[in-house]
Specification:
Blueprint lengths: L5 H24 L11 H23 L9 H33 L9 H26 L49
Helix pairs in contact: 1-3, 2-3, 2-4, 3-4
């Protein structure tokens, strides 16, 4: 799993914005609807953000030493994956709806109903909140750079002071082929 970067999230938002702008131009040009999410989806984004923050705080409290015996390490890995997914979804939501809002800004002087503009701005802001929450929670799930429990001479420490061997991130090890004897005669099948 790769760490989130600002550059990658900005590229995702820009790509979603380009696709959203093009799709909305095609839809409205053909007499179709404006392609924005309904207002009720803001409640779903808020629920995801709050749930992700709760999970992230649990992981952070565990790393700070609270209740170490009652914590499953897979929870941290799943929380980090959910945080990344939320950040990517937030970047796409922000890009798409920001492009729609920019297009609607051009129509302010000729349209009496500004509902689509406000919906686009609200959804773009909600997507930005989702990106920030995902970024913060992913930071909660990172291991410290040094593991005090690791032995000093251990080959595969979390601090990664030694260079890993090639192949599968250091997990591949040399396997020596065993000399197998094949049965001969009537026992061979």
């Amino acid at each position: 799993m790769h760490v989130l970067t600002v550059r990658a999230l900005l590229m995702c938002a820009a790509a979603a914005g380009a696709v959203g702008w093009t799709a909305n131009r095609l839809s409205t040009g053909a007499g179709g609807p404006l392609l924005i999410l309904p207002w009720v989806s803001l409640a779903a984004v808020a629920a995801v953000s709050v749930g992700l923050l709760v999970l992230g705080v649990r992981v952070k409290r565990h790393q700070d030493g609270a209740h170490p015996q009652r914590f499953d390490p897979l929870v941290a890995a799943r929380t980090a994956a959910a945080a990344q997914a939320a950040a990517w979804a937030g970047a796409m939501l922000t890009g798409w709806h920001a492009a729609v809002a920019v297009e609607q800004l051009a129509l302010v002087s000729v349209r009496s109903d500004q509902g689509p503009l406000w919906a686009g701005l609200a959804h773009a802001a909600a997507g930005l909140v989702l990106v920030v929450v995902g970024w913060i929670v992913e930071g909660f799930c990172k291991l410290p750079p040094e593991d005090p429990d690791a032995e000093e001479g251990a080959e595969y420490r979390r601090g990664r002071e030694k260079e890993l061997p090639e192949g599968e991130g250091g997990y591949a090890r040399e396997i020596r082929p065993r000399g197998r004897r094949r049965p001969h005669g009537r026992n061979a099948r």
